[in-house]
Structures are given as structure tokens and as C-alpha cells.
């Protein structure tokens, strides 16, 4: 997802990622990926930085921002 030139091309795609949480924004959102190449995730599951998780959801966009709306976030 982070390697495409225009991430807007991916809007609507379903994702199934096994990743570590990069950083926590607030109770309903967090980041995955490295600082220079990260993706925002909107979820209703509390997580901790560095925690391995499985994320399933859909790539969505608002204005110029592309993010993942998680259907589920499962700690691994």
C-alpha cells in the first residue's frame, strides 16, 4: 500500500495485514509502518505501540488523505 505512486487508486480495496502498531493517535486510531512511510488506521480497538496485530478492513479516502478503516483489529 505504501509503495504505490497514488494511494487513491487503492480506495475501496479490502486489506488483511499482519503488522506492528507504529504509534497510537488516540483511543480510536493508530499508525502502522515506518515514520517516513506510514499509514493511518481508524479502529475501535485499543492497541499499544509495538503490539503485533492483524488488521482487516477497507482502504478509504477523504480529501487528499488515504487511510484504513478497520473492520477488526486482533492482537497476535
What's the topology here?
Elements: E1 14-26, E2 29-34, E3 37-42, E4 52-62, E5 65-75
Parallel strand pairs: 3-5
Antiparallel strand pairs: 1-2, 1-4, 2-3, 4-5
Strand numbers in spatial order across the main sheet: 1-2-3-5-4
**What share of residues is helical?**
under 10%
Here the CATH topology equals: OB fold (Dihydrolipoamide Acetyltransferase, E2P)
The radius of gyration over CA amounts to: 11 Å
What is the terminal separation in angstroms?
A: 21 Å
Uncertain regions spanning at least 5 consecutive residues:
none
Give the overall average pLDDT.
92
In CATH, the homologous superfamily goes by the name: Bacterial OB-fold
Q: What is the CATH architecture descriptor?
A: Beta Barrel
- Content-based structural category: mainly beta
User: Quick one: CATH class?
Assistant: Mainly Beta
Amino acid at each position: 500500500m505504501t509503495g504505490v505512486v497514488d494511494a487513491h487508486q487503492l480506495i475501496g480495496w479490502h486489506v488483511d495485514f499482519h503488522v506492528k502498531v507504529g504509534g497510537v493517535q488516540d483511543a480510536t486510531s493508530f499508525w502502522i509502518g515506518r515514520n517516513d512511510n506510514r499509514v493511518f488506521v481508524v479502529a475501535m480497538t485499543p492497541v499499544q505501540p509495538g503490539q503485533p496485530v492483524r488488521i482487516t478492513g477497507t482502504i478509504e479516502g477523504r480529501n487528499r488523505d488515504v487511510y484504513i478503516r478497520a473492520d477488526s483489529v486482533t492482537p497476535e
